[in-house]
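Observation: inputs received (chain + fructose -6-phosphate).
Thought: call the complex predictor directly.
Action: predict_structure
Action Input:
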Amino acid sequence: MCGIIGAIANANVVPVLLEGLQRLEYRGYDSAGLVVTDSGLKRLRTPGRVNDLSKLVEQQKTQGVAGIANTRWATHGEPSERNAHPHFSAEEPLIAIVHNGIIENHEHIRNYLKDKGYIFLSDTDTEVIAHLIALKLKEVNDLFKAVCLATAELQGAYAIAVMEEAHQESIVVARHGAPLLLGVGKDGNYVASDASALLQVTRDIIYLEDGDIAVLSNHGYRIVNCLNSQFGEPVNRIVHESHLSNEEIGLGSYSHYMQKEIFEQPIAVANTLEMLSNAQSIAPNLFGSEAEKIFSETRQILILACGTSYHAGLVARYWLETVAGLPCNVEIASEYRYRDPIADPNTLVVGISQSGETADTLAALEYAKRLGYRHSLAICNVPESALIRQSELRFLTRAGPEIGVASTKAFTTQLASLLLLTVTLAKMRNRLSPEAEQRMLEALRHLPVALQNALKIEPEVKIWAQSFAQKHHALFLGRGVHYPIAMEGALKLKEISYIHAEAYAAGELKHGPLALVDSDMPVVAIAPNDQLLGKLKSNLQEVYARGGELYVFADADSQITSNDNLHVIRLSEHAGLLSPILHTIPLQLLAYHVALVKGTDVDKPRNLAKAVTVE
Ligand code: F6R
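Observation:
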């Protein structure tokens, strides 16, 4: 899950590499490094972050007209300078490489190379690729051919950029299973893991495909695809104009990306549901031209996702069962891919992912297809992602780039999309009267305003955050469709404030976790005025009676009043099917403000990275 960038131009590219790495840092921030042409290949690496690398560059006045760089999320080998990219082949001919991905057969290749006398200076799988390319280079004396031959032996996922000391006029790049795109500039050519890193120099972007290997020089590029031949067939890849704006990828007046993304939710949801603004009715073709046919055959839904996206799937299960009358299974992708489930071909497999790059979700979807599932739908935030390309039907959550590692606006836009999917399926299954359809359209159009109102509770949440920040553990309770929202609240809190938090279906409390309740264990409850409110109130009494301190997010009409050990923040009146989406907001705000009080690195929490492209 590293971020990689490369540049070759007519002028010094070091500022481009550093600026690009800053943009890619969300992909990993365990170490940073670069190599540039400087008579030989000059390498700078730091176990710190991109800012530390910039300081090194300044101290050493590093410049060069070609270079490659990496910001790392450690997989093989601890975060350290020794394991930081770029890696060199230790022997002549000297090459340098940066890599994003994971090489599954690295152990086997390492042993083979050790037998040949190669010495390894790091614990990374990347150094294995460096030596393998160097070995091939000795044989064929051409870096492009050497990369073709070496990558043919790799199993796993990689996006790499490679430079050779003896031929500094080109950079060779290759991709398989990890994102990589070229930037075509006026005065040079570029490569990066994502477009945001290249906007500083160009908007002309080429998305490489699996098996593509490209050679970049300062005046051009050449792409071949090596899936079916040793040294590749030339391919034409379309140049896309990126419409990402600097506002979308910048912080603006906010202190953190997470804060910005929480407050962007009304507009993110409005953009996602824009097609409904003048619609008289809900139509299946919103999900793709084949959707009507596929939906009419759909008898069951299988949702595959990880983390926050999995929580979105859990909410959708309630909606799909209740509103559309469809049986629905929701599976953690990393578990599903190693089970032996029985495929029903009339099931629609729905992959949910912000990044569309999550290795487990992609693998689970491929596995489902192999098992015999025929139809798939991606709900995803990244148009050019692997998930979108692997799925038959697609629906884009138009949340814009999500840069904070903790997912916020991606989640609420996923929920909005899943509710739209539910209503579409319900209509096709004759479970939605024309009046109910109009009411749903109205509710969905009103959602951005409802989210805006929900954000107004921030000052009250801030006060709670002060006492929360002193705690070491917390319980989150919800019932029914709000139980996954409690799970999401607990995930957000632990992720960015490092407070241990667990979510329980409130009815489960008395079956064990109630033993944990004492005055040191804050209990957060989501208490909407739905049909389970009475049951939930009884569960809250069980906590209260045992001296537990309750923090309740209630609807305005939930009739729960604050008391000594019972703190209540009210949202608007009960919002029906939209309620779980609105109840997400206070939990995001709580996690954010607790993290602020604790002084953690909100956007880059320890040990984590965005886009989990490894297993
Ligand atoms: C939590 C979070 C992660 C992601 C998970 C899946 O805040 O961001 O749990 O939700 O890694 O990522 P995507 O949605 O990109 O597949």
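Thought: report the result.
Final Answer: The first helix runs from residue 14 to 24. The chain has three domains: 3-241, 257-454, 456-598.
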